[in-house]
Write a structure and sequence with these properties.
By secondary structure, this protein is mostly helical. It has seven helices and no strands.
């Protein structure tokens, strides 16, 4: 027994075992969460206002993009429902020539129903277009955290060069 080597007892050589354990992924020294210096109260307030304004502008850009996409995609529904309500005798009863010659109450009701029926699939299409466009343009990554206002040394999304591939340690 005293002459037996560690291999006899099932113990492995440490170098072989260490090769089987994968190492931690490399990370950049700039992205480490080192203790940062807090800003002065006046500087913190100015940075908070700047970051808040920037986040509001990004939010308004997202809202404007969503409004434009939904308006363009839902335009057929809007037109069909508008003409249905405009030419129905119980709602607006327009005196326009196309209402008198082409559309009676039954066809106006059919237009209203058709407009509301095609609204659901068009809403799904509009939302899919907005989500794919927002993801492609990375609009949601442009929101800045308020911790940039509290501590010195933080960098904005554009200064970091937002990588296309998000990485996280789990």
């Amino acid at each position: 027994m005293p002459g037996q080597e560690p291999e006899d007892f099932g113990a492995e050589i440490p170098s072989e075992k260490s090769r089987m354990i994968p190492g931690l992924p490399p990370y950049d020294m700039d992205e480490q969460l080192l203790p940062r210096q807090p800003r002065s109260p006046c500087c913190c307030l100015a940075w908070t206002l700047l970051i808040g304004t920037m986040n509001c502008l990004v939010f308004l850009l997202n809202l404007l993009l969503m409004f434009v996409i939904f308006t363009v995609v839902l335009l057929p529904t809007i037109v069909v429902v508008y003409f249905g309500f405009q030419c129905h005798s119980q709602v607006l009863h327009s005196s326009a020539r196309y209402c008198k010659s082409l559309l009676d109450d039954n066809s106006s009701s059919a237009l209203i129903i058709l407009g509301f029926v095609i609204m659901s699939p068009l809403l799904v299409v509009a939302m899919a277009i907005y989500c794919s466009l927002a993801r492609r343009l990375q609009l949601l990554v442009c929101f800045q955290p308020y911790s940039l206002a509290l501590y010195k040394g933080g960098r904005c999304c554009w200064a970091r060069g937002c990588s296309r591939q998000l990485k996280a340690w789990v």
